Amino acid sequence: MKAMELGRLIRALGLNAIQIRGLECASACALAFLGGVERSAEPGSIGVHKASFTPGAFISTDDAVSAVQELTSQTIRYMIEMGADPALLELSLQYEPDDIRYLSRSEMERHRVVTTVRDDSTPVAQAPTAPPPAPTQQAQPPLDLSIPTALSGRVLHPKGAAPIKSDTEAKASDLVTLRNGDRVAILGTQDRWYRVRADNRTGFMHHTWVFVDQFNAAPFGQRHVQVKSVRTIPEAAAVLQTSAIPLSVYLATNGWFAITLEGTYDQTRATALLQAHKTTGGIPDDSFMTYGTTYARKICCD
Question: Cβ distance 76 to 273 under 8 Å?
Answer without folding.
Answer: yes
